[in-house]
Design brief:
heterodimer; A: six-stranded mixed β-sheet; five-stranded antiparallel β-sheet; B: mainly beta; seven-stranded mixed β-sheet; four-stranded antiparallel β-sheet; 11 strands
């Protein structure tokens, strides 16, 4: 079992729709969770972090965390073609300072 | 520019040669990380420094790889006797304790071994 699992996609949504990206993790003691966006050929850039169960909203982005079920998701409202990228889920595992990343989900927003 | 800076951005080298990458973290960030990323994969952790101390190393970091952060500021990652399998993007990231575990990446250094 991978430490952080994501569906590789591509996830294709029409412009203006809600994109839903999911991530599961294996270490039940993980405390911090992050979403990064990565455009082709570029480095990852931080979208948002979440530490507590529930929802956290930042503009068009909402992160959702459910520690009991060990999953974290990212919702992107009013998706734009410029949101087309790979979205990486990252988890801070117990006792580790460095983040563990999933393989990413490729999102395609169709104009 | 106050972000994480990496140099060189691109490097093409022949198999068997040594290469060195440099990373300058965000000013005042005392934590520095090296990751490696290949096509279709997420970043894979290589090593972590807090100030000048190398506190964590991945099993991915074979004895051909060495990283240093001599004065707790910039860091170097050296790969000796490069192999074609070393071709990847090498990412440096930094963080500061008060930001929790949030890390910020540099633009990466692309390595192609031919």
């Amino acid at each position: 079992q991978k430490e952080v699992e994501q569906n590789s996609g591509p996830l294709s949504v029409p412009e203006g729709a809600i994109a839903s990206l999911n991530c599961t993790y294996s270490d039940r003691g993980s405390q911090s969770f992050f979403w990064y966006r990565q455009y082709s050929g570029k480095s990852p850039e931080l979208i948002m972090s979440i530490y507590s169960n529930g929802d956290k909203e930042d503009g068009r982005f909402t992160a959702q965390l459910n520690k009991a079920s060990q999953y974290v998701s990212l919702l992107i409202r009013d998706s734009q073609p410029s949101d087309s990228a790979t979205y990486l889920c990252a988890v801070n595992r117990t006792g580790r300072r460095a983040l563990t990343f999933g393989s990413g989900t490729r999102l395609q927003v169709q104009p | 520019d106050t972000g994480v800076s990496q140099d060189p951005r691109h490097k093409i080298t022949k198999r068997g040669q040594n290469v060195t990458f440099r990373c300058d973290p965000i000013s005042e960030h005392n934590r520095l990380y090296w990751y490696r990323q290949t096509l279709g994969q997420g970043p894979e952790f290589l090593t972590y420094f807090q100030n000048e101390a190398q506190l964590e190393k991945s099993r991915l970091l074979s004895d051909r790889f060495s990283a240093e952060r001599p004065k707790g500021s910039f860091s170097t990652l050296e790969i000796q006797r490069t192999e074609q399998g070393d071709s990847a993007m090498y990412l440096c990231a930094s963080s500061i304790e008060k930001s929790g575990n949030t890390i910020y990446f540099g633009e990466g250094s692309w390595l192609t071994v031919v």
